[in-house]
Amino acid sequence: MRVFGLLISLLALAAAVMCSIAFGVTNIPLREVWNSFVQFNGSNEHLIILTARLPRALIALAVGACLAVAGALMQVITRNPIASPSTLGVNSGAAFFIIMASGWLGISGLQSLTWVALIGAAVSGGIVFLLGSIGRDGMTPVKITLAGASMAAFFHSLTQGLMLSDGKMFDQVLVWLVGSVAGRDMNQLTAVWPYMAVGMLTALVLGRHLNALSMGDDIAQSLGQKTALIKLFAAAAVILLAGGSVAAAGPIAFVGIIIPHIVRYLIGNDYRWILPYSAVLGALLLVTADLGSRYIAMPKEVPVGVMTAIIGVPFFVYIARKGRRA
Fold this sequence. Notes:
By secondary structure, the protein is an all-alpha fold. It contains 14 helices and no strands. Helix 3 crosses helix 12 and helix 4 packs parallel to helix 6. It is globular and about 65 Å long. The relative contact order is 0.17.
């Protein structure tokens, strides 16, 4: 049944990608979409497909998958149902480091900025886990939430300060900071996909071990699991996934919160299935949200980060209230 559900999800994702390529300000027949791959003729429609819409759809697919898996990993290692790269400050740290490197230090080049994003994600995540682990009781969901919210606000304030000090920088990065896949090209995906791939493979390999970890550290240790090592590899995967996503599309929020909860509701708590399902449904969510963002204020477009926020804020409130009642 789970295999069948995953296949259905993959078919839905393929359909969403095709619609993302075909529909927008300029609608292109699906036949022309197919012809652009097999019989490219240099027409405007074919150029739009291959240079603009295909990269946009693939980046949305990759970023959505990575953010959803990163959220699932963070929720299990922190035992916090609202943990995600956005709520725990990982995205904000990566974004601040990119703004500082490009605006103040003059660093350019996709590979260089990708490394900067990964370092920023690692620094921010490390500080959050350190602050959330201080005290006799160690890491708790409440402490990790407070630490994450504090670091997210801290890096967001620093980012705003940097941009306000340079009006030109503000104009250049404002849309990117909201989270957007518009205007991207294949070079940006090429620069980050190796890091995303390593992070995704690491996460999938950890699936069986995360099942034991989800029952608590004491039970996992009694089953022979090295919990510290599992958390270390999971944290490394989160950094690669979240840092690569921010470098490609900016700090898109809420995907990492929404999808893992939906997946657990659909298939249960087996992380060998939660992670691949999260990857596919996260990709489906972001590709669909990007498609919808083209029609809200047509002919202008709304950044996809705004769309995920519209969907995610009510879901976030629901999860928070549910946790409080529990």
